[in-house]
Each structure stands twice: as structure tokens, then as C-alpha cells.
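Sorry to interrupt, but I need a hand with the structure work. Go ahead and set the record down below:
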Amino acid sequence: MVKALKIYPKDTVAIIPTAIEAGEEVQIVGTDESYRATEPIPAGHKMALIDFKKDDLVIKYGIPIGRMKQDCAVGGWVHCHNLEDNTAELCTGYCEKYREAGRKINVFPRADGQFGICNNIMIFSTSVPANVLAEELSDKTQTVWMVCDKRFVENGRISDFTKLAITKTAENPNIFAAMIVGDEEDRAFNEAICAEISSQGKKPVFFCGVNSKNYAERLQESELVIQGWKKDAAALKREPVSMEGFMMAVHCGGSDWTTALSGNPTLGVAADLIVEQGGYVIMDEWGGLPGSEHLLAAGARSRSVGLAIIDKVMEVRERYIRDTGKPVEETNPYQSNKDGGITTLVEKSTGNIKKAGSSGVQGILKMATRPTAPGVYLQDQPCGGPNGTGIYAAMSGCHIHVFVTGVGYVYYEIPYMPGIRMTGNSKTFADASYKLDFNAGTVLEGKEMSEVGKELFEFIIAVAEGRETTKSEKDKLLAFPMYYYADEFAELDGYYNIDKNRDQVIQKVNRIKK
């Protein structure tokens, strides 16, 4: 009896390894299926396992490989004389079905080929004197403004980093238009910033040059410009596009015993789904990675990326000792983490990395650069908290930010980027003062992780499409201090409600703006 190979269970043809004659019996390897050849079949050719009619599809490797040109009985020879190539059909119908199967997201397409999930207008102040007009303009138009921090002004001009932060933030696809408010006497410098934003982001940009003589005139003029932009933005309609290029920043803070078991792993499931659709996931928290860097390295896209992760964590550890005089594990986990059941930094960091999902780190992302391929990226710039993660991710084009807490960490959200706050602790979620949006604590109550992760993915899309609004959105302030954290290794003192958090931000803005 001749042995034949049926590659996939649903195949309708089998491969005959040796030539056979009509009447010979054929058995499918690994099964009790047997057939009888009705005609000679050459070695390596196909034998029919069903009665084919003209136009029937022939299945091999589990997919259609051709269409029958004529009838062929079970045991018959299937080849060029009776099988028509259906490559053209696959390249149209099947490929189109695959294309259509990709997840669509309703967003605002941009002129540069990107898409935004909202239409923010932002005012950027480039000098301390300009803060006065920028703030009044913000109040009059209810528009977000970035405060010029007096600590980072040298010889009357903003630092190179602040200039980079302004241009790259303004280029973010969530920003519909940008206004630069600066000194009239430094018009050339400010107009150069406008030109860079306009050329890269292909969006409306306006420079408001102000001095003591033209204040009222410039205020009125700029107000009219912003009102016109708002009217134009309101007229835009969302359109369904591929999720390719969708970018999410992730961070965790105030971790407890639930963070590693439910909060971060659930976000990891959602992260995998975003990467699967051609999106990007951005994280950092270098100070919270020691002890698990080898795990990230092992799952990285390449050995070179893995080694870069290990080197970067080592660099952060050395810098921590240099800056504080002690190793990072002496202060991290923080007391709040210990109160929540976390004892060592290795224990904390191993839970920390779970929010990146299972797709592996694609690379380390240089500050203010966009990812080049779908996947998970670690930001090169160490950030001192969730706001830092979001700020730098936004400079790379990030659309949305998801933050996981265990004990109820509250932070000031970035006003120009939607932020979702979630927890893996149902008790924390029940505390209304934290205004959390998603509860992954249901995993600990018996719900399947994959199911909860898909629910989170759908919630992220709903927020991105404007169908859901996060609980913290209405609490965001219009004034935005770019340099939010003075010490990247410091944890905020305590966990408190949003009102107290807002008060601290207002106090900071008042300290730096004049």
C-alpha cells in the first residue's frame, strides 16, 4: 500500500511520494483514510480526495490553490490538465478580505498622512513676558497654553530643548493648529519655529509678536485667529482609517500586589492587540526596570536591542548612585508600594514590564523621533513619572496615554492628549475620588484576562473615537508646565484626590510663569 501525505486536515488533495498506477490503494499517513487511484499519478503529484465538479476549489495547505476546469473523481490525478491557477482571484478577493479584516478607527486625517484623535489648538509662549498675553488669550478662548518656564530661559531665549519640545509637541497629530506667542523684538527666532512646525506638521501656525505698545491689538488679533481655527476644527468630520500608526503611551504608578496580577497584564493584552493592528506602544520607567531588564532583553526583536536595554538600565542605576549616593533598590519600592504588598524592586519591576504585552521590544526610541515599525518601544529619555512619559511620547506623535495604578496614584494629565486611568484593584476603583476609568480587578474575581484585555482595547478605541470621555478630562487645566518633574527619581508625596493635585499644578504654574 502506497503512503500519501495530506498536509492539512481540510485539504481535498494528497501528495503521492512515489509514482502509482490505476487501481493501487493509497493510505494517508497518520490516519485510517485510504483511497484507490483511478489513473496513473506521477511521483510528487496530487491525488483527489473528493469528487470534484467543474469550478470547485482545490484545497492544499489549508487554502484554495486553484479551481477545477473539469470534473475529477476521487483517486484521480489533479494537475495542469484539469486545474486552473487562481492566483489572480487570491490577489483580489482574498487579499481584499484580509485588508478589510483590519480594524478601522474613526479619526481626523491630517495633511501629512497621519491622523489625530482630537482637534486641539495650542498656544506656546516663548518668553516670560509673553506668558501674560498667552494666559489671557487662553482664558478668553479656553485654549491650552504651554507656560514659558523662567528657569529655562538663557539670555532672553528659551533653551534648545524647550524649542524642540514646542516644535515636536505642535507637530503632534492631535494638534490641529498652533499659535506661538513671543517677543516682537525676536520675530525672526519665533517665525523660524513657526516655519518648522508648518513644514513638518502641515498645519495652521500663527506668530503673535507682542510688546508693551501693541498688547491690546495683538490680543484681539490672536483671539480672532483662534476663534477661526476653532470653527474650522469643528467642521471636520471623522473618517474610518486603518489603525496602522496608532500610538499609545503606557505607565504605571502607585503599584500594589494587584498591578502585576491584573492591572498591567490586562494592559499588556490591549497593547498586543494594538501592535497586531500595526500600532505602537511607548513606555519608559527606566528607574523601575532594574531586576527585570534581562526579561525585556530576552524578548526583544534582536540581540542588539536586548543589549541596548541592559546597557541603558545599567546607566540609569549608575546615575542614580551618582545623583543620590545610594542604589535605586534602597528607595524603590516606595513606602506606598510596600504598604500594597510589594517588597523588592525585582518584584515590582517584573510586574512593571507586563504592561508592554508579549510582542517584544522593537527598539529604544530616541527623543522626539517617530517609531519606524509596529511594536513596543522604550523611550530613550528617562522620565520622572507618568506625565513625563506622556510628554515625551507626544513629542514622538503619540495619540493616547494609559496609566495603571494599584493604590490610587493621581497625576496631572496632559491637556492635549486623552489619558485613561485604570487599576487592577477593585477596591481602589470603587473610590470615586480617584476618578478611574477602567477596572481590571475583575480578573482577580475570575474573569478571563484575554476577555478583560479585549474590553480595555475596545475602551481605548472608544475614547480615541470620541465615543467615551475619561473621568479626568473635565479636570484638566488649560495651563501646561512642560517641565513637570524636577527630579526624575522622585515619587510624588502621597496619593490624594484630584482637587489637591490641581492645586499643586496651579501653584507650580504661578511660580514659573513670571
User: Anything to note?
Assistant: The two ends are 93 Å apart (CA to CA). The first helix runs from residue 87 to 101. The chain has a mean pLDDT of 90. The longest strand covers residues 175-183.
